[in-house]
Write a structure and sequence with these properties.
The protein is mainly beta and 147 residues long. The chain has one domain: Cupredoxins -  blue copper proteins (Immunoglobulin-like), CATH 2.60.40. It has one helix and nine strands. It has one helix spanning 2-17, and strands at residues 31-33, 36-41, 50-53, 56-64, 73-75, 81-84, 93-100, 103-108, 120-125. The protein has a five-stranded mixed β-sheet with strand order 3-9-8-5-6, with no helix packed on it. Strands 1-2-4-7 form a four-stranded mixed β-sheet, with no helix packed on it. Strand 1 (31-33) and strand 2 (36-41) form a beta hairpin. The chain is globular. The N and C termini lie far apart (70 Å). Mean pLDDT is 81; it is low at 14-25 and 131-147. The structure holds copper (II) ion. Copper (II) ion (CU) binds at residues 70, 109, 111, 114, 119.
């Protein structure tokens, strides 16, 4: 008897899983995969809020999937802008290579007001990020100052 009940439950669960997810999900594929950071500029997000990558050269693909002009800036933890795309019109995209070392970076849209509206994300590079090869830097645990 209990066997029948659990079979019914499994079938019900499968049926639920079969329902397509919401059609209006966040931009597909945004975030980091295969050494490429995909950014979807839209109102009001970058398509993701947190991502991580291995240290090194990161390909940054920025696409304006929104309806207003946007751009992308990458700022390091010292507040220095490491990359900034030109202003992109809706539908435009840009590709660049950015060399990033271990650290935490803030990504945002530089159009006034857009960052505050939600066009901001955090990228963690190196420790705790990427998760592929451990950093080649001799495995010391010390985090030296950047000065
Ligand atoms: Cu913007």
């Amino acid at each position: 008897m209990t066997r029948h009940l659990s079979l019914v439950r499994i079938l019900a669960a499968v049926a639920l899983l079969g329902v397509p997810a919401g059609t209006h999900a966040l931009a597909q594929g945004a975030g980091v995969s295969d050494g490429t950071l995909n950014v979807a500029l839209e109102e009001w997000s970058l398509g993701f809020s947190q991502a991580s990558a291995s240290a090194g050269t990161l390909t940054v693909r920025t696409r304006n999937t929104g309806t207003a002009g946007h751009n992308l800036a990458i700022e390091d933890q010292a507040g220095e802008v490491r990359y900034e795309s030109p202003l992109l019109d809706p539908g435009q995209s840009r590709r660049a290579r950015v060399d990033l070392s271990d650290g935490t970076y803030t990504l945002y849209c530089g159009v006034p007001g857009h960052r505050d509206a939600g066009m901001e994300a955090t990228l963690t590079v190196g420790e705790g990020g990427g998760g592929q090869e451990p950093s080649t830097g001799g495995g010391g645990g010390s985090r030296g100052g950047y000065y």
